[in-house]
Amino acid sequence: MSLPTPEPGLVIPYAYLWRHEHRKGQEEGRKVRPSVIVLAVQNSKGGAPRVTVAPITHTPPAKDGEAIELPPRVKQALGLDDDRSWIVLDEVNQFAWPGYDIRPVPGSKTVSLTASSRRGCTTRSSVGSSNWPLCGAWWRSGATNQFDRRPSGDRRRVH
Questions:
Q1: How far is CA 12 from the centre of its chain?
Q2: CA 33, CA 102: separation in Å to the nearest integer?
Q3: Is-cis flag, bond preceding 13, omega within 30?
Q4: Please, are residues 34 and 80 in contact by the beta-carbon 8 Å criterion?
Q5: What is the spatial distance between Cα 111 and Cα 128, in angstroms, rounded to a whole number?
Q6: Confidence of residue 155 (pLDDT cuts 50, 70, 90)
Q7: 121 in Cβ contact with 76 (< 8 Å)
Q8: Are 85 and 77 a contacting pair, CB within 8 Å?
Q9: All residues at 6 or more sequence positions from 97 whose CB lies less than 8 Å from its CB, including other chains
Q10: Around 108, how many Cα atoms within 13 Å sit in the side-chain half-sphere?
Q11: pLDDT in tens, 57-102
Q12: Mapping DSSP to helix (H, G, I), strand (E, B) and coil, where does residue 77 land?
């Protein structure tokens, strides 16, 4: 399986563990969904990079500001369906790249739905505003529902 370098804007198929699933004691996400990397930090000691992903869902946000809708042209570029979808901003998962929850794209030998954020698929301009990275919106949202996905299966809350 071909593994891209993790970078903000990369969209990957990922077994996302929702907060409500974690609270019920689940250790694995029940569904593989596209998720966007919002942060990738290289380990200064040469270890695996730490990656933070936000899920993409068909469920509309309960309140404004909790998610950003993906425009149809972005969904098309990613090879996603035509239904409306949102990037959730108020919860994320963290893991050491590549982790055990990423999956190959169906019918492919890669885990990347998009080659890079440089395609413009995850810039704010692609969702109708000025040209700044989507991860900036995530940071400003005050996302606090992060779970550290450790190789041992242990999930710890990240503050």
A1: 7
A2: 10
A3: no
A4: yes
A5: 27
A6: very low
A7: no
A8: no
A9: 6, 40, 48, 49, 50, 51
A10: 14
A11: 999 998 887 899 999 888 888 888 899 999 999 999 999 998 888 8
A12: helix
Q: What tokens were used for 39?
A: 């942060």
pLDDT of residue 67: 92
Residue 45 has pLDDT above 60, yes or no: yes
Spatial CA neighbour of 8 closest among 147, 101, 132: 132
Indicate if the pLDDT at residue 120 is higher than 80: no
Burial of residue 128 (CB within 10 Å: 0-12, 13-18, 19+) is exposed
How far is it, in rounded angstroms, from Cα 115 to Cα 152?
29
Burial of 38 (0-12, 13-18, 19+ CB in 10 A): buried
CA separation for the pair 154, 27 (Å, rounded):
8
User: What is the DSSP-derived secondary structure letter of residue 107?
Assistant: T
